[in-house]
Amino acid sequence: MTDIRSYEQTGEAGFGDYVALLKPRVMSLVVFTAMVGLLVAPVQVHPMVAFASILFIALGGGASGALNMWWDADIDRVMRRTRGRPVPAGKVAPEEALGLGLALAGIAVVMLALAANFVAAGLLAFTIFFYAVVYTMWLKRSTPQNIVIGGAAGAFPPMIGWAVATGGVSLESVLMFAVIFMWTPPHFWALALFMNQDYTKAGVPMLTVTHGRRVTRNHILGYTLALAPVALGAGFTSIGGPVYLASSVVLNAIFLLGAWRIWRRDEADAEADGYQAEKRFFRVSLVYLFLHFAAFLAEAALRPYGLGGW
């Protein structure tokens, strides 16, 4: 592996390179799910407090991304999917990525504590630590369960949003966490099925690398089966309702069908068509999560009119 400290800048970094350090696509998921957690909570939040809180949660997500890119620059340089990132591409020095990540993390946590409350700020601090240290520095390179345990980092934002509004944690926020947590393994293992060569070259012990694609297909189906009752169960709480439940039934049926099709395929067929079913399942997984949280939001929007909730 290349020592990230030996990287030399090959060009002057632009504003877009520093934005890319923050993983804006991942940040958009963080912002959306945190916003949903805040808006579906039973306590109304002043619009300015809500805006500031979401901004600082987004900064915390960006800090996690920058710290991840700093630590993972060596393997990012090997993988085709990530070698264009600012640090391995030589646009941003590793120490700059580290400094930016630490600075944003400190600002985000302190300002969220001031704008909202210490519970929300504590959850944000733990999320950053979990993603940057527990997942990135430890789990990712040491165990095929990396994405299973590490997926908790991406599942915390709705809990943080809920805590901004309520100052605490509840069954509803835990279930929103659980939906993302259970969704993460099949989502990323589908990616690993058609990006396995990258993970093999980089020495990342994804399940496809350590146990093979057949075992990974089994796990995708198993986790998708386990995800369905969790997602459906959220529909019977105060944040659920008929709109959410109907949406969840349809979405889980589609997701289960996709997992079943992946499970039935052998490697010869998958390789022959360029892993099209696996790529399609990966794209559907993004829609699956977005529409579940959009349905939570729809229930909250309809509730004042007596149309949402139970």
Automatic annotation (TrEMBL):
Pathway listed for it is: Porphyrin-containing compound metabolism; heme O biosynthesis; heme O from protoheme: step 1/1
Q: How does it sit in the membrane?
A: Multi-pass membrane protein
Q: Which keywords label this protein?
A: Cell membrane, Heme biosynthesis, Membrane, Transferase, Transmembrane, Transmembrane helix
Q: InterPro entries in the record, alphabetically?
A: Protohaem_IX_farnesylTrfase (IPR006369), UbiA_prenyltransferase (IPR000537), UbiA_prenylTrfase_CS (IPR030470), UbiA_sf (IPR044878)
**Pfam family for this entry, one:** UbiA
Q: What is its EC number?
A: 2.5.1.141
Q: What class of enzyme is it?
A: transferase
- The residues that cross the membrane are 26-43, 49-71, 92-112, 118-139, 146-168, 174-194, 220-237, 243-263, 284-302
- Family, per entry: Belongs to the UbiA prenyltransferase family. Protoheme IX farnesyltransferase subfamily.
Tell me, what does this protein do in biology?
A: Converts heme B (protoheme IX) to heme O by substitution of the vinyl group on carbon 2 of heme B porphyrin ring with a hydroxyethyl farnesyl side group.
Q: How does it assemble?
A: Interacts with CtaA.
List the PANTHER family: 4-HYDROXYBENZOATE SOLANESYLTRANSFERASE, PROTOHEME IX FARNESYLTRANSFERASE, MITOCHONDRIAL
Name of the molecule in the record: Protoheme IX farnesyltransferase
Q: In which organism is this protein found?
A: Plastorhodobacter daqingensis
